[in-house]
Amino acid sequence: LVRLRQRLAGSQGTLGRGLLALLSRDRLDEDTWESIEDTLLTADIGVAPTTQLVERLRSRLRVEGQPADARAVLREELLELVDPTMDRRLQVSGADGKPGVVLVVGVNGAGKTTTVGKLARILVAEDRTVKLGAADTFRAAAVEQLATWGERVGVDVVRGPEGSDPASVAFEAVKQGVEEGVDTVLVDTAGRLQNKAGLMDELGKVKRVIEKQAPVTEVLLVLDATTGQNGMIQARVFSEIVDVTGIVLTKLDGSAKGGIVVAVQRELGVPVKLVGLGEGADDLAPFDAGAFVDALLG
Ligand code: GDP
Q1: So which residues are the signal peptide here (predicted)?
Q2: Which of 26, 29, 62, 294 has a CA 20 to 30 Å removed from the CA of 111?
């Protein structure tokens, strides 16, 4: 969490400082409220949540007057937007002696393969047995990349011949997982968004064949936080294709504006469960709403 704060401090902290400066003005006139709105929109929070936050702040200040502690007021309201009540636990355990199956989806380049590798490492550190399925058979490099992660983390990677059917790789990975009694199978998938119908067929088939062996316990949608509102369009498409149960926001260490957390949760009604904070093996962390808001405020 300290790391999250440090990583976010660079770009996102300015959101908090900007808002606090505005809220601390002697007179909160219309121009100031507009500046507050602009600041929130620039941080990728999205139109509806921004409007909601500004409305709440305005009515609160009408009743309570100028806040003595603007930071505390802003923290409360931002936390409300991020929604600390959402259940962010990962469903990595199966039932009836079967493994938990985590399907990882998202467009190419979002950070799926990296996330699968990092997540495997976290699970192994928790003494779980893990198997990986390299079902992104479309890109040979993705399979190699996952194999490298497997070696690094010390877990088995199930892969097919180049260009093989993603569903058959996913099927085989879960089949072996069931037979060997592993705790969790993580399945990496391909994300060719150019062709929605094709992707829908492919992911649908992957999910169906897996479920012949064991229920999918978690569908993680990986989104690159630096793509801002464009990422929202991808998020919408994927949520129409599969029942997403959790979001992984990657590259929050880069130029991303943290407000995208609020926007995407709103859009999908699904919690951000993990955040990617770098390319290294340890750079994946559970999402913590309070720590996140503190990082936003700087
Ligand atoms: P995929 O195509 O969705 O499987 O994406 P990859 O896992 O291959 O990741 C694409 C690029 O993003 C790689 O260079 C990763 O190292 C990088 N990447 C993934 N997650 C993060 C992150 O949280 N922070 C940063 N800075 N880079 C990341």
Answers
A1: none
A2: 294
Tell me the pLDDT band of 294, cut-offs 50, 70 and 90.
Answer: confident
In short, whether 114's Cβ falls inside 6 Å of ligand 1 is yes
Rounded-to-integer distance, Cα 169 and Cα 159, Å: 6
> In this structure, which residue's CA is closest to atom 5 in ligand 1?
111
User: Ligand 1: does its nearest atom lie under 6 Å from the Cβ of 142?
Assistant: yes
Q: State how far the Cα of 258 lies from the Cα of 159, in Å rounded to an integer.
A: 35
- The strand order across the sheet containing 130-135 reads 156-158, 130-135, 184-189, 100-105, 216-224, 246-250, 272-276, 284-286
From atom 16 of ligand 1, which residue's Cα is the shortest distance away?
279
Q: Report the Cα 179 to chain-centroid distance in Å.
A: 30
144 alpha carbon to ligand 1 midpoint, in Å?
14
Task: Indicate if the pLDDT at residue 10 is higher than 70.
Answer: no
ipTM above 0.95, yes or no: yes
User: Does 134 appear as a known binding residue?
Assistant: no
Angle, helices 228-241 vs 260-268, to 10°: value is 20
Say how many Å lie between the CA of residue 151 and the centre of ligand 1.
Answer: 18
Identify the H or E element spanning 54.
helix 47-64
Is 113 annotated to bind a ligand? Reply is yes
- pLDDT for res 21: 84
The model's pLDDT over 53-99, given as tens digits with 9 standing for 90+, comes to 999 999 998 898 888 888 899 899 999 999 999 999 999 999 999 99
227 CB within 6 A, ligand 1? no
Q: Which atom of ligand 1 is nearest to the CA of 139?
A: 2
pTM: 0.92
**Other CB atoms within 10 Å distance of the CB of residue 144:** 13
